[in-house]
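Lab notebook page, bench 4
Experiment: in silico fold of construct C2
Operator: M.H.
Input chain length: 342 residues
Purpose: comparison with the prior construct
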Amino acid sequence: MHAGGAEAVARERMRRPRRLLEMLFLVACLALGCAGAWRGAPRNTTGASPRHPAYGGARLRRAAIVLSGGLRTFLHCNESLHRRVALPNPDFALDFYVYAVVDGDDKDAGRALVALEGGGWPALRALASAAAPAFAADVGAALPPPGLAASPPGEGTARGKAGNIASMFRSIELADALRVADVGRTHDVVIRARPDLFWCADVNLTAALALADRRPGAVLVPWAEGDLAFDQVAVSSPKAAAAYASGFSRTLAPAVAARRPLYPEREMARHLARAGLAPYTLRAFRSALVRRDESGAPYHEDAYAKLRSDFPDLATTMPPYLDGCPRRALHHKKKRVVGELV
């Protein structure tokens, strides 16, 4: 045999053990779900971090759901949150963080708080609550002089609502502080929402995660136009969520000190710009707010009702009235309780 042929045979003999090892490795990976480690797997071009590998099933990805505000109709919204966030995203494990402001005369809010405090919601990682009067005092004390009493009355449906606007921003900040303090958890994506929001469309957390990987400063909101940004829902990376939640200290407090008229969506848009965040639109997202009539029965209200009233020229850019949402809120069913959100 000539020298070239002998070298080829030697190389082939050296390859055989390697091929055998590669075959054994492939079989093991197929069994264990680690195909992303196989050398033939496509390269990760999404920019995803090792915490959420683009291929394989190393672990469930994890999302934080941060709720802040009143619990008055939360038990009527709970099922929609389960149906529109938990069920469509089976590859995400969900952790919940709740900061609740409770009116002592509100029996429904009291029942919701008791259910949460009773440990019936296994996915709940942290809960904090404050009585409405104590919370209002906290908001006032956290603001610089001259305080809310000196704030201009505002415009449109926000007229005379400076205290409500400040409370919204403060509760967002306190709720996200619960998430940040939970050092035992690492999240891939964060959703901030109101407890009285009825979810009428699925949220694709995988798509939100892909955007967050490509654009770390992105915040997904249902609607943003000009100097206004919808403030009822936001989806982002954990780092962007922390910046989003800093609106009370970073943006609202200086606005109060400067005696600037407050409008919630305008202050949110101003805050996003100040924090270096870029709003992106959740175009398919639909929602409603659950209110109660004089008899205490729940009903759905257009989530954009105040914006449509104050900015009629922009109404056509907002989602259609209650699009995808039932016109009438269903009474809370006993079979769907807080503990079923896992």
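Observations: Confidence is low (pLDDT under 50) at residues 7-12, 17-58, 329-342. The chain has two domains: 3-37, 61-317.
Next step: discuss at group meeting.
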